[in-house]
Design a protein that fits this description.
It contains three helices and three strands, in the order βααβαβ. It has helices at about 60-70, 75-85, 95-115, and strands at about 45-50, 90-95, 120-125. The protein starts with about 45 loop residues before the first strand and ends with a strand. The chain binds L-tyrosinamide (TYC). L-tyrosinamide binds next to strand 1, helix 1 and helix 2.
């Protein structure tokens, strides 16, 4: 799933690995709640980076953005750009919060530098 190495915990996608028949807190062998590290780490939630349509940003610029910041090839970038152009909004990618936020900022900065009104935003996946 995009990460290198072996996951420490396997389990359901919500990050909660519930049932503990022994009624324990999952901290088997640990000394106390106050000192042990979290036994059930939350899976970082994912965020969609959305691209919004507008009437002014050139199609070529949107394609360039999708290739540059979302590592799409020409074909993928063209498809996503046309989807946004026709439907008003489209998904550029899904990332953990900090990466998604960085992408939004990079796109917005690049658009502003080039004086295009292109808008990009985040939505919880
Ligand atoms: N609608 C724009 C045009 O006709 C193209 C465009 C596509 C703009 C996608 C923004 O996210 C966008 N030039």
């Amino acid at each position: 799933m995009g990460t290198v190495g072996v996951p420490v915990h396997a389990g359901p996608d919500d990050g909660e690995r519930g049932d503990e028949p022994d009624g324990g807190d999952g901290g088997e062998g640990q000394v106390s709640l106050a000192t042990r590290t979290r036994a059930k780490p939350k899976k970082p939630s994912q965020f969609k980076v959305l691209m919004l349509n507008d009437d002014y940003t050139p199609m070529e610029f949107v394609v360039m953005v999708l290739k540059r910041f979302f590592r799409m090839d020409m074909e993928q970038a063209t498809q996503v750009m046309l989807h946004v152009h026709q439907r008003g909004v489209g998904v550029c990618g899904i990332y953990p919060y900090e990466i998604a936020e960085t992408k939004v900022n990079q796109v917005m900065d690049f658009a502003r530098q080039n004086q295009h009104p292109l808008q990009c935003t985040l939505e919880k996946a």
